[in-house]
């Protein structure tokens, strides 16, 4: 009997010990949960913030190889665009730790306000900025005149004046791919609003559901964080709404596109019509372009730019790619003698179609060289959005180095 009592008392003591241990474990867990971040699933922005995603670019640019000279080549015409681009060029100058030794500004406007702004840029650093005045106004079949100014021994990064955002490591990555792959005639950046890349971005998960705000708001937030989609709230409309690609923009200027709360509604948005093409709706429709831009702003805010990126070079073979943001070796272009390029062929035709075909030299895309191109001529509706204002606010908030560029 005594043995049985001792056994029962031992089991009771063991149970008490286990219960006390569990209580201590529960107290510890509750204490930890009080100081740990609580991930909310209410909004995509709250998820990112709670999970500890950082904002802004965290990319580390590589070291520029010794003896490499890199020149920017800007086809200039519009202050309204370049007021944003200027900040990214300044960040990428060698004086600020970037790769650009100089910038050639190919003048292609007669508007006095635009010309005065260019003179202001030149005067800010005449050692680095150089103005080039072609013999006449340049258009599709006379752009070859700009390419005659290239020199041997330099890499050139050609940048359209409506490139409104450049990732911090884009220019180094673009040039580095050209250095590493000298047989590539052209290396293009991974460009937002540049068919056929939009098709790829959609299927890589980089695009998000947005619709234009149907009615003009009575109040819109302003300030340095105006560019952030999370500061503008959600689109408020019916769940069965779809956007007709032929639809005109809302009737008021600077309209906003707002995030749709339900990610599954992306199938009802303009980008669902994207296909792998360089013309057609993927190129012409302003609504597709708008959704790509607002998606980029979200990805910048949430530090999810990796959604666009791919590691291996994408070879275009004989498919066209737009030359909004690309790198060439000056030697390669001089060797082709731009003065004798065939009449009736634009510079894009020559650089990404005819010359690669004739020389059997590929055109590739650097998947880690991100930039945003604002608008093609058929996308007039983009000018009626608030995107120019948003990109300017983004540059001022995150990227401008000097007070002059912030103005």
Automatic annotation (TrEMBL):
The chain crosses the membrane at residues 12-31. It comes from the Eukaryota. The keyword Transmembrane helix applies. Keywords: Membrane, Transmembrane, Transmembrane helix. InterPro entries: Nucleotide-diphossugar_trans (IPR029044). This is Uncharacterized protein.
């Amino acid at each position: 009997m005594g043995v049985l009592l001792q056994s029962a008392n031992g089991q009771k003591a063991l149970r008490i010990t286990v219960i006390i241990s569990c209580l201590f474990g529960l107290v510890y867990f509750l204490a930890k949960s009080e100081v740990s971040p609580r991930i909310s699933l209410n909004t995509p922005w709250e998820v990112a913030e709670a999970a500890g995603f950082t904002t802004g670019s965290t990319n580390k640019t590589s070291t520029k190889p010794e003896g490499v000279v890199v020149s920017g080549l800007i086809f200039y015409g519009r202050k309204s665009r370049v007021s944003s681009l200027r900040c990214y060029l300044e960040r990428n100058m060698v004086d600020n730790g970037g790769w650009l030794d100089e910038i050639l500004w190919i003048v292609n406007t007669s508007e006095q306000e635009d010309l005065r702004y260019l003179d202001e840029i030149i005067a800010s650093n005449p050692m680095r900025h150089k103005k080039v005045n072609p013999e006449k106004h340049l258009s599709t079949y006379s752009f070859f005149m700009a390419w005659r100014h290239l020199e041997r021994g330099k890499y050139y990064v050609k940048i359209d004046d409506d490139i409104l955002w450049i990732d911090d490591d884009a220019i180094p990555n673009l040039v580095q791919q050209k250095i590493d792959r000298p047989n590539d005639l052209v290396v293009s950046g991974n460009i937002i609003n540049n068919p056929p890349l939009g098709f790829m971005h959609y299927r890589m998960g980089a695009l998000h559901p947005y619709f234009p705000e149907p009615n003009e708001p009575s109040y819109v937030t302003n300030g340095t964080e105006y560019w952030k989609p999370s500061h503008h709230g959600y689109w408020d409309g019916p769940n069965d709404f779809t956007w007709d690609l032929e639809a005109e923009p809302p009737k008021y200027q600077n309209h906003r596109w707002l995030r749709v709360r339900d990610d599954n509604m992306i199938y009802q948005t303009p980008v669902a019509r994207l296909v792998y093409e360089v013309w057609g709706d993927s190129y012409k429709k302003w609504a597709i372009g708008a959704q790509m831009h607002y998606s980029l702003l979200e990805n910048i805010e949430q530090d999810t730019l990796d959604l666009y990126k791919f590691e291996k070079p994408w070879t275009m073979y004989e498919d066209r790619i737009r030359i909004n943001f690309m790198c060439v070796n000056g030697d390669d272009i001089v060797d082709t003698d731009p003065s004798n390029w065939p009449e009736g062929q634009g510079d894009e035709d020559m650089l990404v179609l005819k010359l690669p075909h004739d020389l059997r030299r590929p055109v590739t895309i650097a998947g880690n060289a991100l930039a945003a191109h604002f608008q093609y001529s058929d996308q007039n509706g983009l000018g009626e959005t608030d995107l120019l204002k948003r990109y300017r606010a983004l540059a001022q908030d995150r990227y401008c180095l000097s007070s002059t560029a912030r103005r």
